[in-house]
TrEMBL record:
The reaction(s) this protein catalyses: L-valine + 2-oxoglutarate = 3-methyl-2-oxobutanoate + L-glutamate; L-leucine + 2-oxoglutarate = 4-methyl-2-oxopentanoate + L-glutamate; L-isoleucine + 2-oxoglutarate = (S)-3-methyl-2-oxopentanoate + L-glutamate
Pathway involvement of the protein, from the record: Amino-acid biosynthesis; L-valine biosynthesis; L-valine from pyruvate: step 4/4; Amino-acid biosynthesis; L-leucine biosynthesis; L-leucine from 3-methyl-2-oxobutanoate: step 4/4; Amino-acid biosynthesis; L-isoleucine biosynthesis; L-isoleucine from 2-oxobutanoate: step 4/4
Cofactor: pyridoxal 5'-phosphate
Domain of life, source organism: Bacteria
Name of the featured protein: Branched-chain-amino-acid aminotransferase
Pfam families in the cross-refs: Aminotran_4
Keywords: Amino-acid biosynthesis, Aminotransferase, Branched-chain amino acid biosynthesis, Pyridoxal phosphate, Transferase
Listed EC numbers: 2.6.1.42
Family matches, as InterPro entries: Aminotrans_IV, Aminotrans_IV_CS, Aminotransferase-like, B_amino_transII, BCAT-like_C, BCAT-like_N, BCAT_family
Classification via Gene3D superfamilies: 3.30.470.10, D-amino Acid Aminotransferase, subunit A, domain 2
Length: 366
């Protein structure tokens, strides 16, 4: 299928009023409130992508034998739309989300979606629901996803899929400026292994991390951090965020790709840090070195990052053998500098020399 003229647009007859929407935006939390519309496309063997629609958000009718419910062929993305001071709306590096979406699709034996269609789908949703993008420090979280809906119980790639984009207004995932996070090191569970699906953004990776996250919460921790599956000593990532280590000489270390998700925020932080003169090294870093460097003072800061969380400091790490603190248990200068620079670019408060932002103009609902 071709350009935007292929999308059939049917505005919702029951969209919220401006007053109701304003009330919902006062304290939206994260992932609890949804906008009026959604975008859907379908794929079938022999026909490819078709039936592009922008319509009222509503439940899907699912047959109990739908393949996704049994074999988990499902992938998703997460990106944000920001309201700039001039009223325009900006997307941050959506092309990278489209490319990662297709890498996930390839790994999960699902059809790839042309990058132009991915971005058009997101922009069409913003054309109808642009008024949901909050002003100030909030954002509109966009969730593109795809799942297998063939009615079939055989173990093979499905022949029918649905792609959808929904949106949810969001406040800060973690309050900016709040205390640094406390992490729990999982000694039993791994998030991914070599040859597995760690680099794909699929639901099973997150489902498999939830029991470890529950253990972290039971120990008073904010998040869980996973070690490698083979040796259980190399720090990899959190349940939904990448991690960085800032050394006393200014070097920044982050775990290498392969078994972890190639975060777009991770990549952006690496580029921003290097542009500010920091040496960034993608290298394995062990839990033993993390503790020893924190105790000795060689490690000055540690932070995590992701689309939802942006950049958040780590203050304390707990594990079965004990715990250790990172410097003063507060966001350090490097963490704060990178967080501020990233947010300022995303929100149009600073120049965008790398042309990461895609500005959509002063969009209002149709």
């Amino acid at each position: 299928m071709g350009g935007s003229e292929a999308f059939v647009v049917t505005p919702s007859a029951s969209r919220l009023s401006a007053q109701e929407r304003a009330s919902a935006l006062v304290d939206p939390g994260f992932g609890k409130i949804f906008t009026d519309h959604m975008v859907t496309l379908r794929w079938s063997e022999g026909s490819g992508w078709h039936d592009a629609r922008v319509r009222a958000r509503e439940p899907f009718m699912m047959d109990p034998a739908s393949a996704v419910l049994h074999y988990g062929q499902e992938i998703f993305e997460g990106l944000k739309a920001y309201r700039r001071p001039d009223g325009s709306i900006t997307l941050f590096r959506p092309e990278e989300n489209a490319r990662r979406f297709n890498r996930s699709a390839m790994r999960m034996a699902m059809p790839e979606l042309p990058e132009t269609l991915f971005i058009e789908s997101v922009e069409w949703l913003l054309k109808l629901d642009g008024d949901w993008v909050p002003e100030g420090e909030g954002s509109l979280y966009l969730r593109p996803f795809m799942f297998a809906n063939e009615v079939f119980l055989g173990v093979r790639p499905a022949s029918h899929y649905v792609f959808c984009v929904i949106a949810s207004p969001a406040g800060p995932y973690f309050q900016q400026g709040a205390k640094a996070l406390t992490l729990w090191v999982s000694d039993r569970y791994s998030r991914a292994a070599s040859g597995g699906t760690g680099a794909a953004k699929c639901g099973g990776n997150y489902a498999g991390s939830l029991i470890a996250q529950m253990q972290a919460a039971a120990r008073g921790c904010d998040q869980v951090v996973f070690l490698d599956a083979a040796e259980r000593r190399w720090v990899e990532e959190l349940g939904g965020m990448n991690i960085f280590f800032v050394m006393e000489d200014g070097e920044i270390i982050t775990p290498p790709l392969g078994t972890i998700l190639p975060g777009i925020t991770r990549d952006s932080i690496i580029e921003l840090a290097r542009s500010e003169g920091y040496a960034v090294r993608e290298a394995r870093y062990s839990i033993e070195d993390w503790e020893a460097d924190a105790v000795s003072g060689r490690l000055r800061e540690s932070f995590v990052c992701g689309t939802a969380a942006t950049v958040v400091a780590v203050g304390e790490v707990r594990r079965l053998s004990g715990s250790f603190e990172i410097a003063s248990k507060a966001p350090g200068p490097v963490t704060q500098s990178l967080q501020t620079r990233l947010l300022d670019i995303q929100r149009g408060r600073a120049p965008d020399p790398l042309h990461w932002c895609r500005t959509l103009g002063k969009i209002a609902g149709l």
